[in-house]
Design brief:
six-stranded mixed beta sheet; single chain; globular; six-stranded parallel beta sheet; Rossmann fold; Dihydrodipicolinate Reductase, domain 2; about 325 residues; 2 domains
């Protein structure tokens, strides 16, 4: 099977290639694709070497699968071009997520929506994935009315240049003397601002969490998000407050999460055990802890959710979608 990775030299694209090998996905030939600046670079995969090529060259090679992580504009223009050749496209950008004709998939939650006729499939936002993997099984039992979420998102969500900015700042460089991707320093700072602001005062990142929750889980759930960038180089964290229609037994709720595929409960406050980005780094599971009743309302719960945003939040989820296509014999 020929598999193209569009955006192969970026943080997520690099991770996709790594995970394809880890999970022994049946790749007969890798087609790494990137911008003109990266054309000609060598990518190693399963003891073989592959040369980074341009998009048009990749289309000409007629891959069976193309996984995109090169930004919305590239996905807008090129995903249909690949799809027209019969190639299945899994897109990690935001461009196709809210298209009514495209599926938005977290495999553990809604892979049943996939059909043989889906040629462009959207990968959700990283923060949405980890929140919903925990919320979905609880919604089935208790019915979620409202979610209030604040995120603490790693600089890796922005890319290599954001990591470089933070590293430069840690050397003591004066603001304005180096290339910055954020409007302010990120080291020793917190930015309550991810993506651009919209007319309602929320950022695009925040509205992604609202809209994607409605599309994947349930349109009746109210979602109030605040997304924040923190000086961490791996792993997103979220403080999540959920109000249910039905009351719950706390231990029963914990038991549900312990039985949920892809979720790991780390919740032993007597021994200071709770999820942190250092636990999630390099792992595909979503970790949840600090599980406690909301003392201000009857049927509310507080949760602390952590995941590796480059893996389950992006690359792993995309490859899990591809695995589902294989399992269903759509690929």
């Amino acid at each position: 099977m020929k598999v193209a990775i569009v955006g192969a030299t970026g943080l997520v694209g690099t991770k996709m290639i790594e995970i394809l090998e880890e999970r022994n996905f049946p790749v007969s030939e890798l087609i790494p694709v990137a911008s003109e600046n990266s054309t000609g670079k060598i990518i190693k995969f399963k003891s073989a070497e592959y040369t980074v090529c341009r998009l048009a060259d990749a289309v000409a090679q007629k891959p069976a699968l193309a996984i995109f992580s090169a930004g919305s504009e590239v996905s807008k223009e090129w995903a249909p071009v690949f799809a027209q050749t019969g190639c299945k496209v899994i897109d990690n950008s935001s461009y196709w997520r809210m298209d009514a004709t495209k599926k938005l998939v977290v495999p553990e939650i809604n892979s049943d929506v996939l059909t043989e006729n889906d040629y462009i499939i959207a990968n959700p936002n990283c923060s949405t994935i980890q929140m919903l993997l925990v919320a979905a099984p609880l919604h089935k039992v208790y019915t979620i009315k409202r979610i209030v979420v604040s995120t603490y998102q790693s600089v890796t969500g922005t890319g290599y240049k954001a990591i470089e900015q933070m590293q430069i700042e840690r050397t003591g460089a004066e603001w304005g003397t180096y290339e910055a991707v954020y409007p302010y320093p990120i080291d020793r700072n917190i930015l309550p601002h991810i993506d651009s602001f919209t007319d309602n005062g929320y950022t695009k990142e925040e509205m992604k969490m609202v809209n994607e929750t409605h599309k994947i889980l349930c349109r009746s759930i109210s979602v109030s998000p605040t997304t924040v960038r923190v000086p961490v180089a791996g792993g997103h964290s979220e403080s999540v407050n959920i109000e249910f229609e039905k009351d719950f037994d706390l231990q029963e709720l914990v038991n549900i999460l312990e039985r949920t595929k892809g979720v790991v409960v780390k919740d032993d406050i007597k021994n200071n055990i709770y999820p942190m980005p250092i636990h999630s780094f390099g792992k595909d599971e979503v970790f949840v802890g600090r599980i406690r009743r909301d003392i201000s309302i009857k049927s509310g719960i507080n949760l602390w959710i952590v995941a590796d945003n480059l893996r389950k939040g992006a690359a792993t989820n995309a490859i899990q979608i591809a695995e589902k296509l294989l399992e269903k014999r759509f690929l």
